[in-house]
Write a structure and sequence with these properties.
Layout: H1 2-47, H2 61-75, H3 83-89, E1 105-106, E2 112-113, H4 116-122, E3 131-134, E4 138-144, E5 150-156, H5 161-176, E6 185-189, E7 196-200, H6 207-211, H7 226-245, E8 251-252, E9 261-263, E10 269-271, E11 278-279, E12 288-289, H8 301-306, E13 308-309, H9 311-327, H10 343-351, H11 371-384, H12 395-402
Parallel strand pairs: 2-6
Antiparallel strand pairs: 1-2, 3-4, 4-5, 5-7, 6-7, 8-11, 9-10, 12-13
Helix pairs in contact: 7-9, 7-12, 9-11
Magnesium ion (MG) binds at residues 135, 259-260, 272-273.
Length: 436
């Protein structure tokens, strides 16, 4: 009896020991896995040169690691193609700001961390005279760095969760994505409560300013000619194509509109504002569900109704911009007769009618385009804005269709100011601009 008890006691001890050894082994496995993952993340951060100065990075490292670990790991594999483009853009912002200011952290990808003082100095103390625009993020100021580079500084004026999220998204995406068709981020500032984004200065501002000149005071006629409009359409399409098809997972812009297409001194276009961007689903035809944001008149119907967001939602918004370029009309204009207020509903029936497509064309363009080209662009716009998301084209298809319509694609000075001319014939009042 006593022998039996001793045997059972021995057995129990053995089981406990085996369990202890197993727990120790699993702890060891978990610890090595943790080391492996931290090592990978550290390597990735090092590759972005963020690790050089953690204290200067706008987000505290622990929260960055805990909240963004999956995203960070995904971003290790983000840029799939466009390496040549990357090389073209790297170094654009690699000069340090001098003038005895606090040292600037310059990452290998050319994104700098500024102090508030430096940007205050660069914009002349954020004086009103340097304001170039206002948006939902805050005011935009023109400025000059001590090395002479012209910059646009966006000063966040509404601290809060959403603004903070947009700021992070913009910085995270723009430091990783590089394309000649996306607006380049020169740097950012996260000094105390201040949040600022520093971009290349685009001398000709937003596309909408040129499509609807003096829209506030009525009466302006767009001087953007057909050739330039087509090139802007192509370059903007290439920006979206890059986001949708050259990075993995795809990036959905979510707020594509004419004011987010910026024009440089030669009227070359870049796509801006990724604050609202969302990383798309990896699955073919997949979607991500999200709060409905974006700008009235540009939001795809399925996204507005269900919040289901896919790259095809951007294709719809692109179609609206193409319609703006064709018609010279704003997406929603409450001053027009009811049937003409919403650009898409008004234009759609005309777009597929070869004979009547000229009825919707911007009168400022008269005599500048061939009927064949107009029909072709109208057909592309019609495909993009159709209600069935799955039948909308991919941005790569849009790019392919637009390429033959753009003359002088290879010349960087294809469109200087002298190539802009006003309509030779007087504009018909109903098409003049949004105020006509
Ligand atoms: N990099 C830049 N270079 C020159 N001008 C710029 C630049 N970025 C913005 N702007 C000007 O500032 C204006 C406001 O831009 P911002 O992106 O803040 O607002 P928005 O595009 O009009 O609206 P939203 O906030 O909804 O995107 C633009 O229309 C443009 O004229
Ligand atoms: Mg904008």
């Amino acid at each position: 009896m006593e022998g039996d008890n001793k045997r059972e006691e021995g057995l129990a001890l053995l089981v406990i020991m085996v369990l202890a050894v197993l727990s120790l082994a699993s702890l060891l496995v978990a610890f090595s896995y943790y080391c492996y993952i931290s090592n990978k993340v550290a390597k990735h951060l090092k590759s972005l040169s963020i690790s050089k100065n953690f204290s200067s990075f706008p987000f505290p490292l622990p929260s960055l690691l805990s909240s963004n670990l999956p995203q960070l790991l995904r971003c290790c594999f983000l840029v799939k193609e466009g390496k040549n483009e990357e090389r073209e853009m790297v170094g654009r912002g690699s000069h340090a700001v001098g003038g005895g200011e606090a040292p600037v952290v310059v990452s290998e990808r050319g994104v700098q961390v500024f102090t508030y003082r430096q940007l205050h100095a660069a914009t002349g103390g954020f004086v009103k005279a340097n304001v170039v625009g206002h948006g939902s993020f805050g005011s935009v100021y023109r400025g000059v760095l001590p090395d002479g580079r012209k910059i646009a500084v966006k000063l966040m004026d509404r601290p809060g969760k959403q603004g903070e999220e947009e700021f992070k998204m913009e910085v995270e995406l723009l430091t990783r994505l590089r394309s000649p068709y996306l607006l380049g981020l020169i740097g950012h500032c996260s000094d105390g409560g201040h949040r600022l984004l520093v971009y290349e200065f685009m001398a000709n501002g937003g596309l909408q300013e040129h499509l609807y000149p003096n829209s506030g005071s009525c009466g302006g006629i767009s001087k953007l000619n057909w050739e330039t409009r087509m090139r802007i359409a192509l370059e903007a399409a290439k920006g979206l194509e890059y986001l949708h098809e050259h990075v993995a997972p795809p990036v959905i812009h979510r707020d594509f509109k004419s004011s987010n297409i910026l024009l440089d001194k030669d009227f070359h276009a870049t796509v801006s504002d990724f604050g609202l961007a969302k990383l798309g689903s990896d699955k073919a035809g997949g979607h991500v569900s999200t709060r409905v944001l974006g700008t009235q008149g540009y939001v795809a119907p399925e996204y507005a109704l269900t919040g289901h967001l896919t790259t095809k939602s951007d294709v719809y918004s692109y179609g609206v911009v193409l319609l703006e370029l064709l018609t010279g009309r704003v997406p929603v204009d409450m001053e027009r007769p009811p049937e003409e207020r919403v650009l898409v509903s008004w234009a759609l029936p005309w777009l597929t009618d070869r004979e009547k497509v000229t009825h919707i064309m911007d009168p400022a363009l008269e005599g500048q385009y061939s009927g064949k080209d107009a029909v072709q662009v109208a057909a592309i716009a019609a495909m993009c804005v159709q209600p069935e998301a799955e039948y909308r084209p991919l941005m790569a298809d849009v790019v392919q269709s637009l390429v033959p319509l753009v003359k002088n694609r290879s010349t960087t000075k294809a469109c200087n100011s002298s190539s802009f001319h006003a309509s030779k014939s007087p504009a018909k009042p109903e098409y003049g601009n949004s105020c006509a």
